[in-house]
Amino acid sequence: MASTEPPTARPPISVLFVCLGNICRSPMGEAVFRQRTSSDPRIKLVDSAGTESYNVGNSPDERTMSVLKGNGIVNYSHVARKVKKSDFTRFDYILAMDRSNLRDLQELRQRAAGRGDTDKLARVVLFGDYGGEKGEEIIDPWYGELWGFEVAYEQLVRFSDGFVKEVLDVDHES
Asked: Which listed residue (19, 24, 87, 129) is catalytic?
């Protein structure tokens, strides 16, 4: 059911995109989401991180940057980082790229809560549940060719639009 509140009546939300190493899918998701919501006052913070520390301090994969550039996203820079405990209180939504990331994040969320209430922590969700088929994953393109990054980009656009529509109750027009 669509909200009857004006679009800016809700408090702005924050979103963290998460994949394994934070150099392919999650920074691409961050860049796509930023582009598609750049003028939306309901978004206050967008970032990305990885569940592992393999690439901490590195820039996104050159294939990620190539696909972003080819789709008009040219002013994006990022330094890979690992998810930290404070992310679960800093962000409203933490969006996992695949089920493995989702499981890791759910465990981290539980540890972040300790004996406390998990209701006060970020909502951890598989990103493909927005705009995709329930449970749809973004396969890690790192091991393959450029076309895998292009497929990931198309999914990220679709899921970003689905997230905006479902969570913020608006249709995002290109």
From this structure: 19
- Residue 82: what pLDDT? 98
Spatial separation of the C-alpha atoms in residues 83 and 51, rounded to whole Å: 6
Give the count of alpha carbons within 13 A of 141, CB side only.
Answer: 26
* 25 included as an active-site residue: yes
Distance CA 107, CA 74 (A): 35
- Tell me which of 24, 25, 63, 104 is the catalytic residue: 25
First to last CA, the chain: 23
List 87, 129, 140, 161, catalytic entry: 140
* Active-site residue, 10 included: no
Amino acid at 120: K
Tell me how far apart the alpha carbons of residues 18 and 29 are, in angstroms, rounded to a whole number.
9
Convert the pLDDT of each residue in 64-91 to its tens digit: 999 999 999 999 999 999 999 999 999 9
**Closest of 105, 90, 106, 154 to residue 128, by C-alpha:** 154
d(CA 172, CA 36): 8
109 is catalytic: no
165 half-sphere exposure, CB direction, 13 A CA radius: 14
What's the rounded mean pLDDT across residues 158-170? 89
